[in-house]
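hi! just following up on the protien thing from before. the input was this:
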Amino acid sequence: MGRIVHEIERQIPRNEADRLRLATPRDLTAWQAFHLGSSLLYRRGIANIERAQSYFQHAVAIDPDFARAHAGLSHTYWWLLLQRTLHDPGDAPQLMRQSAEAAIDADPDDPSANLAMGKALSLSKQREQSPEWLERAVDLSPSYAMGHTQIAAFHAFAGPYEDAMKHGEIALSLSQRAPMRYYSLSGWNFSVRFLLPKAVPKRALH
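and the predicted 3d structure came back as:
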């Protein structure tokens, strides 16, 4: 059931974006702009991330209380940090945090808002607070593959490594075609091959 729910959630933005692709940007509603931004968020290349960012900005300008659009905007800063500015982040971490906070203010029970806050905190001085928000995202939506993926990635580097394996496996079971599938596999493999053997006695692995 969880995989079916996730697949429906994954297909809706894609189908909506395909329908709207030829629309004039100024005529887009907040919901339509959000779907177009979501369709670009996990495509390769900085240009796609920047286009996604412009759509999310358009959405929140129309509807300042659109939690998922604020969360999407926060995610774009995450990707730009990874792809372009990690060595010189500038104000991207602050903008990422601000957008995540705006998402939580708009709807504290939205899973994507909680995910955005968890990701933003993972790059801040309050890093230890990140897992609480990430876990809340999947508590609100147990079939949220992206949430499980991010939890796996966090614990792959910070431990406990068993949690990285657990949530990586859940993410992969929910969707074999998720945009972040590579990171679930990477976090899972990193924990199993390099970190878990150092943290657990060899006899416990057999």
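The CA atoms of residues 165 and 189 lie 8 Å apart.
The chain is about 75% helix and 0% strand.
cheers
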